[in-house]
Write a structure and sequence with these properties.
Elements lengths: L1 E3 L8 E4 L5 E6 L3 E6 L3 E6 L5 E6 L5 E7 L2 E6 L3 E5 L5 E6 L5 E6 L3 E6 L3 E6 L4 E6 L5 E7 L4 E6 L3 E6 L2 E7 L5 E6 L5 E6 L4 E5 L5 E5 L1 H4 L6 E8 L2 E6 L4 E5 L4
Length: 255
């Protein structure tokens, strides 16, 4: 289900129901995009949620969608990037891996793409691969970019957080007990959050990567199962979602 929520209400409004699991959502000012477990790509109008396009783009899952250089990029379980024009026609494909491409982020130089081989590919704006980072021992699930320090952050199945500058690993943090599913920087890029299969959310200082807080069930009313994604919605507030089928809204109180 695709559901719209208001931050101050506990009931959402269902926008659409697919016949299969939705793996990713992406939106801009005009559209909302979804990708499913079996490669279906759907476009909705952002204002009315009217379905505009419904395309079979891949035989495997669509793990991520984003805008880049005026095009829409789709990362698939077939190891390919798909490029769509403004009318959502397929322009070209780019094969990076024999396994799944899991996550994409914009960088100052271009694009970083993470995959199930444990590699992060760094591409320039001309989509040339300029480096391959052996990011995780196993699959990379999470990726973020800190523009002030030009740092790529990755996390995945091996539960470590790894930080790269100038395509060189400069820090490894044993961040969680189980898989890291998502890394999310706040808008000011002063803090970032990681979430994990170990049921916790962790808050980090983005300047020195110091752990500031562990948000768990016992102390902060966190989740009872794997935490899958985090969304900041203003300076000190964020939403998390979990396999326990809940969304939780948190506020970071300044002292």
């Amino acid at each position: 289900m695709l559901v719209r929520w208001h931050i101050n209400e506990t009931d959402g409004t269902m926008i659409a129901r697919h016949d299969e699991a939705i793996y990713t959502i992406y939106n801009n000012d005009n559209y909302v995009f979804t990708g499913t477990i079996n490669g279906l790509f759907t476009v909705f109008a952002a204002d009315t949620f009217l379905m505009l396009k419904h395309l079979k783009l891949s035989e495997k899952a669509i793990f991520d969608i984003m805008a880049f250089n005026g095009e829409i990029l789709v990362a698939t379980g077939e190891g390919t990037l798909l490029f769509l024009d403004h009318e959502f026609n397929l322009l070209k494909t780019m094969s990076l891996s024999t396994k799944s491409l899991r996550k994409m982020v914009l960088t100052d130089e271009g694009l970083a793409v993470a995959g199930s081989e444990g590699i992060v590919w760094v591409l320039n704006r001309d989509l040339q691969v300029v480096s391959e980072l052996r990011a995780q021992d196993l699959s990379v699930f999470a990726l973020a970019y800190h523009s002030a320090s030009k740092t790529i952050l990755s996390g995945g199945r091996d539960a470590t957080l790894k930080l790269y500058r100038n395509s060189q690993l400069f820090k490894t943090i044993n961040a969680h007990l189980l898989h890291i599913h998502h890394i999310s920087l706040n808008a000011a890029q002063t803090m970032y959050l990681t979430c994990s299969m170990d049921k916790t959310i962790k808050l980090w200082d983005a300047d020195d990567d110091r752990l500031l807080k562990v948000i768990d069930l016992e102390k902060y009313g966190g989740h009872t199962s794997s935490v899958n994604k985090i969304l900041w919605f203003d300076k000190n507030n964020f939403i998390s979602c979990s396999d326990d089928r809940t969304l939780k809204c948190f506020e970071i109180l300044e002292k």
